């Protein structure tokens, strides 16, 4: 795997609150190696470990992007949703930021059918066909289109299973993580002190409740993906 310098700055991570974990009563003992101390009833994450695993994750996504691989970013809780969409759009990745529909990956044939329906409805709307239908029929199809846009809008161009899945908040997205494990899809997971660090291929210990923390981690990963994509374009 390519080793590169990703400008991961401990001071920058502290300013973003990456080091703040959950309360000491709400933790997973398996996270002990990633915790440096406790303060005022909360665990403090060891940012040196965070920097190490974030750097490894950046190496992984750079190499994958440089080979034309596809990424899916998942983060559906309110504090993550906007950052996930922005990061994914910037790096031309697929994303899910509203709700993970069970079986989205493990039952890919059903997801594919929904995506075909979604694309057909979007085309009918663009060509004006929906507007020419009886009001009742048009209203029903517009509701379907709105529903599909909400839940599948971020993966509308996905034509197959992703090569790597990036997950924000292991506990919130546990179903997505289990589907990836079942299918053998490599995962990079942002994990707080209440998570299990052994489930993902690369676990990045970090505050998963602060918008600034989530945004910083995603920014570093997205930069690495974009750099990898540039390399892929230059060296097809």
UniProtKB/TrEMBL annotation:
It is found in: Plastid, Chloroplast. The keyword DNA-binding does not apply. GO terms for molecular function: structural constituent of ribosome. Its main location: plastid. InterPro entries: Ribosomal_uS2, Ribosomal_uS2_bac/mit/plastid, Ribosomal_uS2_CS, Ribosomal_uS2_flav_dom_sf. One of its GO terms (biological process) is translation. GO terms for cellular component: chloroplast; mitochondrial small ribosomal subunit. CDD domains: RPS2. Keywords: Chloroplast, Plastid, Ribonucleoprotein, Ribosomal protein. It comes from the Eukaryota. Transmembrane segments: none annotated. Pfam families: Ribosomal_S2. Belongs to the universal ribosomal protein uS2 family. This is Small ribosomal subunit protein uS2c.
